[in-house]
Amino acid sequence: MLVGAITLWAHFRAAPAAPPARVVPATTVTKPAPSADSNGPKLAGLRPDACQLFAPTAGDRHLTVFVDPGHGGVDPGALGAASSGEVQEKDVTLAVGLELLERLRSDGYSVAMSRTTDATVAQLGPNDTDENGLTQSGEHRDTQARIQCANARQAKLMIAIHLNSFFDPSAGGAETIYDAEREFSDANERFAGLVQSSLVDSFARHGWAVPDRGIKDDSSLFAPVLSMQAGNYGHLLELGPSQSGWLDDPSRMPGALTEPLFVTDRGEANLAVSGEGQAAMAEGIQQAINGYFDGGATAAKRG
Ligand SMILES: [Zn+2]
Q1: How remote is the CA of residue 71 from the centroid of ligand 1, in Å?
Q2: C-alpha–C-alpha distance, residues 26 and 237, integer Å
Q3: Which position among 94, 128, 134, 298 has the lowest Cβ density within 10 Å, counted as fewest Cβ atoms?
Q4: How far apart are alpha carbons 276 and 255 in whole angstroms?
Q5: Is residue 303 part of a domain?
Q6: pTM, rounded to two decimals
Q7: CATH number at residue 218
Q8: Range of the domain at 77
Q9: For residue range 265-302, what is the model confidence (pLDDT) as tens digits?
Q10: Cα 284 to middle of ligand 1, angstroms
Q11: 275 CA to centre of ligand 1 in angstroms
């Protein structure tokens, strides 16, 4: 689920009805939160255990990647149903993020994690939550906290991990979002293409034909429904450019937001909660990050 965006296009782009070919057992494992090597200075407005920095475990590329598992704490993200029961987006994004963390460290990266536990990133105020979870101001504050983390840790690349949802349970597939109005938009688009193709390829290697919905410019996503400001802004906050009074300090590095699966599709929800499905997602993103920095052949754009 995209913060501040309504994914209306899914209504007009019926995904191929191709549930994953293999049925996998639900094996979601809650890993213990890893402990950081260096937290650096505490960041104002962030929860004390948010935004931890992890050193490489093999080699050192002298590059920091920001990994942002979407949602957390009072914000469950999208809700779906797997055969084993309810799926909350926040749990899957965290599991994928933690798996990606270890893979990237062993590839020589430093990794800044927006969160490593089931919690928001921002220290929330009284107007940031209500009985439904995060309010609009809470979403805005929590997303800004993630940007603040990425900038403070001087990340060279950002990946935000989400999962999709739609009222029509036949909608499915992977897609990746980038911003086309930044000074580094060419890099955004290249990275988004790598993430998208690597994810679909990784699913295929594991035996799952997840539909490829392609990459999308974030300005194509918006319906001005959440708030006047969000509608006027017209970008994903985490990826987009500055706008005075709404986003004064935008993310300073290329990045993408990926939604590898729909939790509202039963087959994809089963994949999302499985250990093998989560490993396939982490593997795909890991390969995209290596491809981005190694400057190899740019994956063909899809969609
Ligand atoms: Zn989300």
Answers
A1: 6
A2: 33
A3: 298
A4: 25
A5: no
A6: 0.88
A7: 3.40.630.40
A8: 41-294
A9: 999 999 999 999 999 999 999 999 999 999 854 444 43
A10: 18
A11: 20
Confidence grade of residue 10 (pLDDT, cut at 50, 70, 90): very low
141-186: pLDDT as tens digits: 999 999 999 999 999 999 999 999 999 999 999 999 999 999 999 9
- Whole-number Å distance, alpha carbon 59 to ligand 1 midpoint, is 33
- Is the Cβ–Cβ distance between 73 and 120 less than 8 Å? yes
Q: How far is the CA of 285 from the centre of ligand 1 (A)?
A: 16
Given this model, what pLDDT does residue 296 score? Answer: 52
- C-alpha angle with apex 70: 104 to 231, nearest 5 degrees? 130
CA–CA dist 113, 26 (Å, integer): 26
- Asked if the structure places residue 179 within a domain, the reply is yes
Q: How many structural domains are present in the chain? A: 1
114 in Cβ contact with 43 (< 8 Å): no
263, 89 in Cβ contact below 8 A? Answer: yes
172: Cα within 13 Å, side-chain hemisphere: 23
